[in-house]
Amino acid sequence: MNESKPAGQFFDAAIGLLRQVRDEEGEHIAAAGTLIADTVAAGGRLFAFGAGHSSLPAQDVVYRAGGLALMNLLPVPGVVGVDVIPATLGSALERVDGLATTVLDSSPLRSGDLLIVISLSGRNALPVEMAMSARERGVRVIGVTSVGYATGTTSRNSSGGFLKDQCDLVIDNKIAIGDAELTVDGVGAPFAPASTVVTSAIMQSMVAAGVTELAERGVEPPMLRSGNVDGGHEWNRKVMTEYGDRIFYRR
Questions:
Q1: Which pLDDT tens digit goes with each residue over 78-109?
Q2: Are 128 and 166 within 8 A, CB to CB?
Q3: Whole-angstrom Cα distance, residue 118 to residue 101?
Q4: The pLDDT of residue 1 is above 50
Q5: What is a single Pfam family found in this protein's UniProt entry (predicted)?
Q6: Could you read off the pLDDT of 127-163 as tens digits, one per residue?
Q7: Which residue, 73, 140, 133, 141, is CA-closest to 101?
Q8: How far apart are CA 175 and CA 135, in angstroms?
Q9: What are phi and psi of 121, to 5 degrees?
Q10: What's the confidence (pLDDT) of residue 73?
Q11: In the 8-state DSSP scheme, what is residue 175?
């Protein structure tokens, strides 16, 4: 592909970010894998949360072929995706104080569990409060965010802090403020965001680290297989029956 073309430029930018995260955040990703392995081995449950487009990387590790069966989405009505009408409502809900605590009050999250909170800016009330309130309940919290926002923007949380300030472990996705990799004359705003590509890779790498560490400890991790290969549905039914007390995406 011609690197001077916008498509090639975007691929180059995304690859560069992936390499930077691999090289600079590798120890933190390995530590996240250890937290995942510790939680699974101790009988805890795994949850992931993100609002708006930050929900996409969270969803990417839940109920999927090749995924860890114990990873659950922690949903907040109205903020999970752009299917809510108007879409701007989701952005507004992220700025509402008290919403995260209310959600956790009715969630299955309990002491000993692990919650991954994804927020690109890490500045809004919902993700910051989600991490803070979860830790108060004895839940370990991993934050996946762009640390750069904490020095280039102001907090929208009543605590005055950012997501990075309320976590047991932080992984920086290295995304620049504004989340847009390209500019072109005649286009009034930067475009081509890479946060979903990079953050999804971080999520998969964390799970891979956790799965591998469990195997090294002699603990077989409960994995899901593709339903489109022979025997896949039968395998998944067995796994979800055996670990049904830690899986919340099925009845």
A1: 898 888 889 898 889 888 899 999 999 999 99
A2: yes
A3: 17
A4: no
A5: SIS_2
A6: 999 999 999 999 999 999 999 998 899 889 888 899 9
A7: 133
A8: 26
A9: -80, -30
A10: 97
A11: P
